[in-house]
Amino acid sequence: MSVHRLAIGASTFGWTLGSDDAHAILDRFAGTGGDLIDTADSYAAGRSESIIGSWMASRGSRDRMHVMTKVGRNQDLPGLAPQTIRSAVDASLQRLQTERIDVLFLHGEDHDVPLEESLGAVGALVEAGKVRAVGASDFSPERLIEARVLAANGLPRFQTLTTRYSLMERKSFEGATELVAHAQGLAVMPYFALANGFLAGGIRRRSDVKHDARGARAGVHLGRRGLRVLAALDEIAATHAVAPATVALAWLLARPSIVAPVVSATNADQVDALIAAASVDLHRSELVELDRASH
Q: What are 241's strand-pairing partners?
């Protein structure tokens, strides 16, 4: 699939954002060239998928959008047993009002189910035309290697990996996971790419932290290192005449294996700064400055 280099994250749809606000974000995203939507059957207990489905149906936009969803963590259909995967995918297709999922992610590892059984179930869904491509979400390097061995024996091959990664959260990806992803040619799509909004620059002091779950997650990064990163982002953003969030995403896009960061917006006006990241080429000295500030 050929897609825009930024995916809009829908984890807040149906949770902190209602249908009208979510539709406004998707309208702006599609209107500025975006075509990749990331969701999961566990986001807001499926309401995120329902909101996306209603938007695509009302706009007639299904054929020009690429939809990624995940199965494995929905409270009603937990885990990656074959029958669970089949039921979860059918439920997602119904909520999304579509006949196919462009990328289906296995949402985390399930050590109670052999991976070959899960991949076998996914393979049947691919053959049935319900799934186009398969990805791994938060899989360990060891599990990714196991999956590649199974793929060599005829099971579906993971083509993409989604994992937590940003200027503020680097250790969990850089190292073994990054090496394996690169060696396997996985298209990496980092989520929490703006560290729950912290890298947008709106939080500079404790009084800026909102008293909700997302605010608490962003507030964790408020400290000496976080302020150092924001200062570097401010300086580079001023040079390019863009927003700090744009620079944070451009840093990710300059990393090997990164195809499209997954980023959420709280309102439609934020979308332009996110989309702009694909058009910003950071200089080597700027990349070095951001690396130094974030380590």
A: none
- Is residue 180 within 8 A of residue 147, CB to CB? The reply is no
pLDDT averaged over consecutive 10-residue blocks of the chain (295 residues)? Answer: 94 96 98 97 98 98 97 98 98 98 98 98 98 98 98 97 97 96 98 93 80 74 92 98 98 96 96 96 98 96
DSSP sequence for the chain: ----S-EEE-TTBTTTB-HHHHHHHHHHHHHTT--EEE--TTGGGGHHHHHHHHHHHHHT-GGG-EEEEEESEETTEES--HHHHHHHHHHHHHHHTSS-EEEEEEES--TTS-HHHHHHHHHHHHHTTSEEEEEEES--HHHHHHHHHHHHTTSPPP-EEEEE-SSS--TTTTTHHHHHHHHHT-EEEEESTTTTTGGGT--SSGGGS-SSHHHHHHHTT-SHHHHHHHHHHHHHHHHHTS-HHHHHHHHHHTSTTB---EE--SSGGGHHHHHGGGG----HHHHHHHHHHH-
162 bridge partner residues? 137, 189
pLDDT on residue 293: 97
| Residue among 278, 249, 279 nearest 5 (CA) | 278
Return the CATH class of domain 7-294: alpha beta
Strand 77-78 and strand 73-74: the pairing is antiparallel
Q: For residues 194 and 181, what is the distance between their CA atoms, to the nearest angstrom?
A: 21
Q: Which of 250, 254, 280, 279 is nearest to 263 (CA)?
A: 250
What is the distance between the alpha carbons of residues 211 and 110, in angstroms, rounded to a whole number? 33
The Cα 229–Cα 224 span in angstroms is 9
